[in-house]
């Protein structure tokens, strides 16, 4: 069972370069706003593209989506592919820190 991670713990790991955020929303959602430096891996592409987008199966990946439903699903899929160091960050709607994007749409 993958651990959940709080935004406060996540930002410390991201800022120190010890983890990378993974956004499993769709490209249009990512464009509106995402955690700075996050890699885009839409949920529907996790099985086919994980090795390309997330090459290190032992790196610390912080998986998030909009509300937390897709991130939990993505974490299960990544675990089935052999990823060993995942944290479910939940939804970007509860992310209190900086977000980058065009902000023209809505989450």
From TrEMBL:
Matches recorded under Gene3D superfamilies: Rhodanese-like domain
Ranges for domain Rhodanese: 15-101
Lineage: superkingdom: Bacteria
Molecular functions (GO terms): thiosulfate-cyanide sulfurtransferase activity
Gene this protein is translated from: pspE
Organism field: Faecalibacterium prausnitzii
Lineage start: Bacteria, Bacillati, Bacillota, Clostridia, Eubacteriales
Pfam families: Rhodanese
Stored InterPro entries: GlpE_sulfurtransferase, Rhodanese-like_dom, Rhodanese-like_dom_sf, Thiosulphate_STrfase_CS
CDD domains documented for this protein: RHOD
Name by which UniProt lists this protein: Rhodanese-like domain-containing protein
EC number(s) given by UniProt: 2.8.1.1
């Amino acid at each position: 069972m993958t651990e959940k991670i709080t935004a406060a713990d996540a930002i410390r790991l991201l800022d120190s370069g010890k983890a990378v955020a993974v956004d499993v929303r769709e490209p249009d959602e990512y464009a509106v706003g995402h955690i700075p430096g996050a890699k885009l891996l839409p949920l529907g592409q996790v099985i086919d593209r994980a090795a390309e987008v997330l090459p290190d199966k032992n790196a610390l990946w912080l998986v998030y989506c909009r509300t937390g439903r897709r991130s939990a699903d993505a974490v299960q899929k990544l675990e089935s592919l052999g990823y060993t160091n995942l944290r479910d960050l939940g939804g970007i709607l509860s992310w209190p820190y900086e977000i980058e994007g065009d902000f023209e749409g809505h989450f």
